[in-house]
Write a structure and sequence with these properties.
- It is a single chain.
- The chain is an alpha/beta fold.
- Helices cover 43% and strands 21% of the residues.
- It has helices at 13-24, 28-36, 40-51, 68-77, 90-97, 140-150, 170-189, 192-203, 208-217; strands at residues 58-62, 82-87, 108-112, 125-131, 151-162, 221-228, 233-239.
- The chain has a 7-stranded mixed β-sheet, with helices on both faces.
- Helix 3 packs across helix 4 and helix 7 (170-189) runs antiparallel to helix 8 (192-203).
């Protein structure tokens, strides 16, 4: 029997989320393509654009999963730059390590790390990206504090995340897609609990306005956000 979906606030939440991503690592990329009709790649490119990194920069992609956003950043910083992908799921990292960077891209180092207790020195990175991972943090404010700690002064944070649309008809479509179809996909993929967690995690995560407020409270300046895909996807950015 599949495990029950993780519930935010449970003492075991982080461990459950870790175990869940370990289980779905083999189908993660395929499910992303199916659930987003392939648009997740374009969204990651937009997030990398927002990071405004260039040759020679050092970038941390947090909650990197199978590494797509980290590899996107590698193309921006070039061979003179450095990209580190960090995640707490070793099976996801194993898949990421098998993805080859393109010609002229930085080599990406993929490391196992806890987003709430990062193994990096203060002010270590010029930019930090996190794609579809912020809502999986057991303590968002503590995670934001760690992100700010490892960014150099003036470094940019970019968060790419699912959000809830506010207006019809997208609001109704969102409910149908996430509450009914996504869990169905999960059953087909062999892990209904994991894909029942997805809509639950979006509902329990701050909306775009509230997430911007949390960034300001964490000490980020010049906070702004863009909502895409009819209000289903948001990109937030701020400067340490």
């Amino acid at each position: 029997m599949a495990d029950s979906p993780p519930r935010r606030g449970d003492a075991e939440f982080a461990g459950q989320v870790n175990s869940m991503f370990d289980r779905i690592s083999g189908v993660y990329d395929r499910m992303n393509r199916v659930m987003t009709a392939g648009l997740d790649r374009a969204w990651r490119r937009r997030a990398a654009d927002r990071a405004e990194v260039g040759p020679g920069d050092r970038v941390l992609d947090l909650c990197c999963g199978t590494g797509d956003l980290a590899i996107e950043a590698a193309g921006r910083v070039g061979r003179s730059g450095e990209v580190v992908g960090a995640d707490f799921s070793e099976p996801m990292l194993e898949i990421a390590r098998r993805k080859e960077p393109g010609e002229g891209e930085a080599t990406v180092s993929f490391v196992n790390a806890d987003a709430l207790d990062l193994p990096f020195e203060d002010h270590s990175f010029d930019a930090l990206t996190i794609g579809f991972g912020a809502r999986n943090l057991a303590d968002l404010d503590r995670g934001l504090a760690e992100m700010r700690r490892v960014l150099r002064p003036g470094g940019r944070l970019v968060i790419l995340e699912i959000t809830q649309p506010r207006r019809q008809p997208l609001k109704g479509f969102f409910a149908l897609w996430f509450d009914r179809l996504v869990p169905l996909f999960g059953r087909v993929a062999g892990d209904s609990a994991a894909y029942s967690y997805l809509p639950d995690s979006v509902r329990s995560f701050p909306d775009a306005d509230a997430l911007a407020d949390r960034l300001v409270s964490a000490g980020f300046d010049r906070v702004r956000w863009t909502v895409m895909a009819g209000g289903i996807i948001a990109i937030h950015s701020g400067v340490a």
